[in-house]
């Protein structure tokens, strides 16, 4: 009888330990960056950033009325 | 400020300021870019890419980056300034340096069919029949890179595309001058690179909608950009957009000046505002 109680107790302890381990693993996935829940994605510039950079391709310079004789000329080449 | 002149990319390059070693570096830079991107040098990388239309090949980092910029420019200009007009230029008769072109009684060849470009990193593929011409961005990028080689104040002008470090007064087509305080000025037009085919005038600014030399009211368009690349793309887009050019460049905030064949000058609101002139009431 005592042997049977000891075996049941061992079984209960084993099940409890396994459950505790699984629960700990689940929480570990929530807590540590080493266990990502989402699929990994490639690092890339956001579409908004890309749009801004492209818009910058056509930024304006600064011109003003001439105050001195020309040092260079612009014309078709 | 001492000047240094040399010829590259079919035009005269003028370097103002800079040390002797900086000028030598600028001359090397232009020579290297011409060797890579000329349509008329058989061994150039551009010629190799054009000859491999229909399959994907690996290109140099410089070529890949320049093509990426040209494709971005095409997107930014809503398809006005595109790099896929090489075939249209050849059909119009632009098969060698424009100074060497002579009148040809034969009419221009039929315009080639449109095609696309695949570009992923250093891998590039052209549809069969597509020929690249990167002249729209290569010279301007070379000017930007060249002026960055000058340590102090100075400027670089290549065939009229002018970028400066420090204020510079620049003479404009049709008379007048302007103070360039920051960035660059570029002029595009049809008055220099033109030739005759079948008695009809052809020039190098191709309208992608027709694959023919563009018919616009302007003979020369000057634009001011933060970089020579921006100025050159702006000037070409302004020319190719025709009568919509001034308003289109105003939407981008680019000051621009438009000259007709009769030497009539039109400026957009951004240019007028830069010159301190009151905006015209509509």
Commentary on this structure:
- Helices cover 52% and strands 8% of the residues of chain A.
- The radius of gyration of chain A is 35 Å and the shape is rod-shaped.
- Chain A has 2 helices and 2 strands.
- Chain B is an alpha+beta fold and 282 residues long.
- Chain B has a single domain, classed as ApbE-like domains (T-fold), CATH 3.10.520.10.
- Helix content of chain B is 31%, strand content 28%.
- Chain B has an 8-stranded antiparallel sheet.
- In chain B, helix 6 runs antiparallel to helix 7.
- In chain B, 48% of the residues are buried.
- Strand 1 of chain A pairs antiparallel with strand 9 of chain B, so a sheet runs across the interface.
- Radius of gyration of chain B, whole Å: 19 Å
Q: Can you tell me the overall shape of chain A?
A: rod-shaped
Q: Count of DSSP E strands of chain B?
A: 17
Question: What is the helix content of chain B?
Answer: 25-40%
Instruction: Give the CA-CA distance, first to last residue of chain A.
Output: 106 Å
Strand content of chain B: 25-35%
Helix percentage range of chain A? 40-55%
Largest interface: A-B, 24 and 64 residues
The quaternary state of the protein chains shown equals: heterodimer
Q: Any idea of the CATH class of chain B?
A: Alpha Beta
Strand count, sense and barrel status of the largest sheet of chain B are:
8 strands, antiparallel
Question: For the largest beta sheet of chain B, what order do the strands appear in spatially?
Answer: 1-2-6-7-10-15-16-17
Number of helices in the DSSP assignment of chain A: 2
């Amino acid at each position: 009888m005592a042997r049977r109680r000891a075996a049941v107790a061992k079984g209960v302890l084993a099940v409890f330990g396994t459950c505790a381990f699984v629960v700990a693993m689940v929480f570990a996935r929530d807590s540590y960056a080493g266990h990502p829940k989402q699929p990994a994605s490639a690092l890339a510039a956001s579409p908004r950033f890309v749009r801004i950079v492209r818009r910058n391709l056509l930024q304006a310079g600064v011109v003003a009325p001439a105050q001195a004789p020309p040092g260079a000329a612009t014309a078709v080449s | 400020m001492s000047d240094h002149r040399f010829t590259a990319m079919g035009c005269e390059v003028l370097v103002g300021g800079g040390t002797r070693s900086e000028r030598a570096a600028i001359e090397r830079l232009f020579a290297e870019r011409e060797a890579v991107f000329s349509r008329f040098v058989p061994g150039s990388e551009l010629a190799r890419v054009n000859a491999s239309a229909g399959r994907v090949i690996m290109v140099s980092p410089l070529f890949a980056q320049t093509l990426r910029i040209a494709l971005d420019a095409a997107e930014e200009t809503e398809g006005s300034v595109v790099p896929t007009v090489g075939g249209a230029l050849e059909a119009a008769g632009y098969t060698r340096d424009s100074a060497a072109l002579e009148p040809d009684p034969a009419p221009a060849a039929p315009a080639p069919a449109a095609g696309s470009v695949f570009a992923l990193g250093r891998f590039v593929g052209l549809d069969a029949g597509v020929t690249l011409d990167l002249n729209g961005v290569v010279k301007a990028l070379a000017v930007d890179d060249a002026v960055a080689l000058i340590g102090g104040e100075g400027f670089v002008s290549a065939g009229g595309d002018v970028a400066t470090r420090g204020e510079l007064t620049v003479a404009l087509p049709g008379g007048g001058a302007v103070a360039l305080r920051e960035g660059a000025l570029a002029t595009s037009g049809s008055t220099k690179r033109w030739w005759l085919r079948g008695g009809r005038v052809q020039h190098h600014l191709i309208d992608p909608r027709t694959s023919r030399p563009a018919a616009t009211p302007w003979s020369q368009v000057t634009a001011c950009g933060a970089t020579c690349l921006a100025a050159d793309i702006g000037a070409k887009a302004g020319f190719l957009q025709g009568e919509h050019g001034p308003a289109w460049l105003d939407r981008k905030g680019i000051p621009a000046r438009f000259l007709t064949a009769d030497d009539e000058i039109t400026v957009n609101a951004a240019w007028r505002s830069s010159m301190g002139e009151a905006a015209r009431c509509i």
